[in-house]
Amino acid sequence: MPVIDLATTPLRDLNKALHSIQQGSNDVTYEIANPRGSHAVAVGIAGPVTVEVNGSVGYYCAGMNDGGTVTVHGSAGPGVAENMMSGTVVIEGDASQYAGATGRGGLLVIKGNAASRCGISMKGIDIVVHGNIGHMSAFMGQSGHLVVLGDAGDALGDSLYEAKLFVRGAVKSLGADCIEKEMRPEHLQKLAELFEKAGVNDVRPEEFKRYGSARKLYNFNIDNADAY
Amino acid sequence: MPVIDLATTPLRDLNKALHSIQQGSNDVTYEIANPRGSHAVAVGIAGPVTVEVNGSVGYYCAGMNDGGTVTVHGSAGPGVAENMMSGTVVIEGDASQYAGATGRGGLLVIKGNAASRCGISMKGIDIVVHGNIGHMSAFMGQSGHLVVLGDAGDALGDSLYEAKLFVRGAVKSLGADCIEKEMRPEHLQKLAELFEKAGVNDVRPEEFKRYGSARKLYNFNIDNADAY
Amino acid sequence: MCGIVGLFLKDSRLEPQLGQLLSDMLITMTDRGPDSAGIAIYGSAAEGRAKVTIQSAKPGIDFADLEQDLAEAGLPARVVLKSTHAVIAIAASRLADVRSVLAAIRPDVRIMGSGDSVEIYKEVGLPKDVVARFDVRAMGGSHGIGHTRMATESAVTTLGAHPFSTGSDQCLVHNGSLSNHNNLRRELIREGMTFETQNDSEVAAAYLTAEMAKGKDLGQALTSALDDLDGFFTFVVGTKSGFGVVRDPIACKPAVMAETDRYVAFGSEYRALVNLPGIDSASVWEPEPATVYFWDHQKAA
Amino acid sequence: MCGIVGLFLKDSRLEPQLGQLLSDMLITMTDRGPDSAGIAIYGSAAEGRAKVTIQSAKPGIDFADLEQDLAEAGLPARVVLKSTHAVIAIAASRLADVRSVLAAIRPDVRIMGSGDSVEIYKEVGLPKDVVARFDVRAMGGSHGIGHTRMATESAVTTLGAHPFSTGSDQCLVHNGSLSNHNNLRRELIREGMTFETQNDSEVAAAYLTAEMAKGKDLGQALTSALDDLDGFFTFVVGTKSGFGVVRDPIACKPAVMAETDRYVAFGSEYRALVNLPGIDSASVWEPEPATVYFWDHQKAA
Amino acid sequence: MSYHNPYTPPRKSATFDDHTLAEIRRAAATGIYDIRGAGTKRKVPHFDDLLFLGASISRYPLEGYREKCDTSVVLGTRHARKPIHLKIPITIAGMSFGALSGPAKEALGRGASISGTSTTTGDGGMTDEERGHSQTLVYQYLPSRYGMNPKDLRRADAIEVVVGQGAKPGGGGMLLGQKISDRVANMRNLPKGIDQRSACRHPDWTGPDDLEIKILELREITDWEKPIYVKVGGARPYYDTALAVKAGADVVVLDGMQGGTAATQDVFIENVGMPTLACIRPAVQALQDLGMHRKVQLIVSGGIRSGADVAKALALGADAVAIGTAALVAIGDNDPHWEEEYQKLGTTAGAYDDWHEGEDPAGITTQDPELMQRLDPIAAGRRLANYLKVMTLEAQTIARACGKNHLHNLEPEDLCALTMEAAAMAQVPLAGTNWYPGKGGF
Amino acid sequence: MSYHNPYTPPRKSATFDDHTLAEIRRAAATGIYDIRGAGTKRKVPHFDDLLFLGASISRYPLEGYREKCDTSVVLGTRHARKPIHLKIPITIAGMSFGALSGPAKEALGRGASISGTSTTTGDGGMTDEERGHSQTLVYQYLPSRYGMNPKDLRRADAIEVVVGQGAKPGGGGMLLGQKISDRVANMRNLPKGIDQRSACRHPDWTGPDDLEIKILELREITDWEKPIYVKVGGARPYYDTALAVKAGADVVVLDGMQGGTAATQDVFIENVGMPTLACIRPAVQALQDLGMHRKVQLIVSGGIRSGADVAKALALGADAVAIGTAALVAIGDNDPHWEEEYQKLGTTAGAYDDWHEGEDPAGITTQDPELMQRLDPIAAGRRLANYLKVMTLEAQTIARACGKNHLHNLEPEDLCALTMEAAAMAQVPLAGTNWYPGKGGF
Question: What is the pTM of this model?
């Protein structure tokens, strides 16, 4: 298993190595030592590669991941797994703001808490947060699922399109055009699937509430102008 | 034979004397001493006069010659025989740029080399150069013949109209819209005539190549725009 | 836009290393602010003594014989030179006189900060050069804050660098961009404040000073800042006994905090914290928007 | 627009006549440039000695006691006055100090050129008057270049006259009109060059100086000038051991060269060459466009 | 008998003119601000107020038809391993698929490729038509991130991080539901037929310090191959350009207030941002102050219409220009051919700007399959190429007249101004004087 | 249902106005820049922005009908053995045979001769009509040298070395093939029916130092008899005038950007060169700085239309003016009489400018024998003479009102300006103030 020590190896060499793996090749595992908050660690992965990061990372770790499996044994800075296409990203610690921003696919698991704007503008990604999430999460979320085992901060799901939000704990406040919705069987089933994928064992789907778009802002209506 | 010494006689007096000869009078011969690069020597000749210049001249020697025979026993500066109408101008040495520019008739013979823009914008003059010619020669040449026993510089015949160019040596490059053309019998004959007039004995017309206008720029066509 | 670092020591055995730790944190933030850098260090207060940090554009002239001239002006003091800055140590009872005496004998000298324990150093240039110039690594203390600046709309000058002094033993660093600082500045000028720069952060500093002058404590002043300041901001404020942090309600300029038994640390990015001892086992989190945080030696004591 | 002349002697017996020959050549070019004239003469270099040519608008004041004042400033030198110019001869090792010493003791004096062997004289007025003023006819040397100017878009001043110094023992004269000199000047100013005039030729000189400072030799600098300078130009560049000539790719400003066993000569017109000894049997030709020519005593040797 | 005033002709107010009155009525009827396409319609100081000083005796012109006047430009020389080489300094600005139809995007790609220049994607991602028909394609990285994905990022020749647009510096976008076809919705991961709002800030960074890290990420993802452009609307061009450079941009794209838009509030278009003419000198000054002029390239856009505009922008210090509206007109937008249909839409050819409503008779700003049919991408591409050729010839003819063998050798000193305002903004003297208004002089 | 705005009247853009849109479409369709005749069409600062201060109490006017106000002018006093004496300071500018028909050239000659002024040949040589009917004829010496020959040079009364034209300083010309009739082709030594390009630099000299020698040659050929004019387009009038004087000119002809042309790129006409108004003061300044004002005469042209324009040009320091377009209009160009035919050509009387296409209904800018027939040179000459008479009377009436017994006694101090730009360009105060914008004051 190749080990890349960022204390001695330039970031460029790390990412170049990861990019040299083609879609369709066999899975390879890289271990990354001493990330120490570096930015853009393991970005642009385009093939089946497993990356184990031993330590905490800075901005945009695993950005645009497309098929890789990245685990951070530490915390992640802003924009982790931003615009993920496919694959899995797991953060053992906390994640800073913008986690999973604009993600289009794949699964992001945050074992600790996520800060504000978790899943902002999400476009298909599934995000599972074991802890709490900060304010403005899932802002303008277009599609995908955001599952929170803890509490959610202010203005959850503001200006939401079709992303689906599930929160087990308290929601400090809902954003404009976001409402609580009925939990139907298919939702319970979807949650169960996500728990399975994200390695969540200790909670049951029934403990969650579902939130989604009231679809009031879909076409402009003067009587909703205050919500803009 | 009157001798005019430019070391002691003003240029004005020389040209005034030459202009006093009317079209139709008998041929007179003037000898000019010490030209030492003077400009505008023997310009505007309008009658049958023979001028022998002993030394080198500056700009525009024999400019607008109309019927005179001027021989320079030395080199000539820029624009020798410019706009010649008729008559003969012979340069025993080299000629600077613009030799025979815009000439409308008559014969210009350069025994040495001619510099750039020889025969620029020529409009009917015949030019015979024993040596080489410089770049941009016969630029926009409209009619007349340019015969070069040596080599030609860059961009020969650029933007040529209907002037005919004959070169015996190498052509460094052809200008826009100038191409090599077939030597037909009438061209060989024309060359022979010019050799006769210019006192060229040691070469044969067959040693020359003919160049002329491709006539692509005659009327604007967008697909040729890059050539403009 | 800028980088901020802050370090508050709980374990007094770390105090000799404060300058060392803070310097490394500051240099890590070079990318966020290559234009200028500054640092405020809170040393141990000597009983009955106070300090004034001053800056000069021509230190060779202004600092020559300064100690002697102060003495002649009736202010016995000790002057320690640090490149373009100098620290004047005097009896705490005479602190109020320093400004007027300096105005008379060294009119061009600028006061960076003053108090029982604070020393403020700031200059134009890369953080590593600024740190080296003032020999920050050799400084000890109980807590300190630092700042690296990428100028947005105001000039790159020494005076435009942070920290800004907001009162005795108080200073402020800022990351973000205020959108109503021009109006606020005009109001504060009307209230009698003076300004050296066109910098929005200086307005924030003056605002806090003015609010506290009206009787608010620092926490209350920061709370009212949330109402009165428009735009994006993260403030870290140093006080004699600790520091405070507050972010604007949108909170999109980055901020990370770490706490262990030995210290509380603040950084614009996690990178700033990675060299702290025991960071791997620290509790690391991000401050909430529109929330005022405080760490205080006295309350801890 | 201008007239240029240059003369490079192969036959050292002609050297005493260099000034005489060059003066006649220059005066012939009066029609091309009645506004100002200048000349650079390369004399024989004295071992270990160097020369600096300076110019003053008030020679009566600036040149008074100059030798003595230089000595007092620690620069033993010999000063020879020539009208508004003076030549300072010093030890070659001290050449670098002259500029700073002069700036201190004679701030208004302008340095025209310096080196082991070059002397540069230029002034406003007709070439014949300029030649007489500096007694150029009496000068000897191995080679020299001269210039007469008809100002196009910049002022008629001494500093606007050619030759322009481009470095030690190097100078440049120019005929033509550059069309990107304003942008180039701004760039060169940013790179630290200073300019005295709005003249395009000064930009060409500064450009060559800057390129050579980057490590190019003169030939390479002239070659890159063909890419970077826009417009019409004929440059003649004097160096310690010879001179170089380059014309723009369109080459429509006139240029004639003549060579015999005894010399190589350059003139804007053939007229400039007619008085040279043996010109009738010389080989006379015109330099090609966009081609760098060189004549060099050292290579010849 | 009572006294009657004689007839006086009706007089309208300049303050409350017909447009203003109509807009008040429209606002009263609908309760929403007016959204429209195209750029500033009112008159602002522009390139028309500048003139070139051709060569005469003191300078020599180059032969108009013969002597070389180079027009090429290289973009992205600062950091990119593969800078972009263009034959002409006129690029096609980013216009979103969604705002424009597929055939329109294809036509732009075809025309630009014939001309040796680049096109740019827009808010909505990259389409295959566009990539296929564009020799050089710049991929926009926008706040909405619609359609953003690493494959397209790698397929692109350059990446343009869009911070703002001249039509709406600081504002977001809006694409009305009727333009959201299946294909557009699919590319944007959104339901069909709903209004689509675009955010005004990027979701995952704010400020130049973050932007520096974002650019690092994009470079890492694309292995430092591609030039990174940063596009800003013209508002504080000195600071914005300086900060883009500090954040690591290879190229700065500066869009003045006249710049077109697909859909923005009219009040924004007409009242926010500075005219293009006023933006260039501060931006160039910033580059010069940082020693980065010509090292970081500056592309200027907003109301570029002719080779004269191109030459003027370059003379003021830009490295290239971009065109949006003009390119649409060249491929057939607002063509009098469709006047009858424009009349039906309550407008007239030359004034149609409801581009967000998707009913464009010319088939350009629409997603309606029938209307789209009307635009033949091959013929339209040819038209664009012709137009670009004319602009280039015009710029060359001017540069040659000023004696330049490359368009980049045009200088501010080759210009003078016809009005005080233009003189002050362009920092060139008023014609016939040495007066630089605002700077002293004479 | 989708949402529709209520009706708002269509609004066109000032930046993309109808002309701009049409030009973009034209460019897209053809791929070549627009070539046309006539001068700048857009509004630029002009003589209209100046006013005369008539005499009142502080000064005394001359009696309008009685007291002498001389209008004569002598040109070429510096070097020529035979200077030119004109009765009025208004000359007919050079317009090429080829651009104009034979009858048109004859009409100009007749009208000018009646009025005691001169005409000028053009690019294409001298015709017998013109020489025969022109009492005083100036022969142009142009880069193309079409038709140049020493006989005509000697037949001329003065020689005008053309360095440039206001419509295209630094640019060359283009005469489209359809205007190259047998006669024109023959005079120009060119095949019939091909486009004829005119170079922008002379074939055998560049720069003022060469020009000095060229002028020497022309003087020698004509035995120092004839005044030598040098004509420049208005771009850097201070330098160009100074250099023309240094090169030995007797008369400087300065043509501002509004000056007409037979065929030039529209982009050139509208964007290169300075307005006539802006050119005069720098040129006069150059003459004054050289001590040559009134010794070397200055002829100004470009948009001269009335006696007021004449008086203003003279007050600013010119010795005479030249007219081109106005003379053509006087002899019948763009006459509403032919409106029907103008409509057929897709234009209207007053706007027809496709002079290079040779289809002029008025028979002036054409070589078509049938169209030419329409112009009666005798009547047209009379019309020109009438027009010149009116301009002269107008200039005199103004000069008398200012108390001048010779038009040349008009001074800048007799003027004030209506706009800031005109005040700065003409260096006269804004009306009612002592403010010389750009110069301080107040």
Answer: 0.76
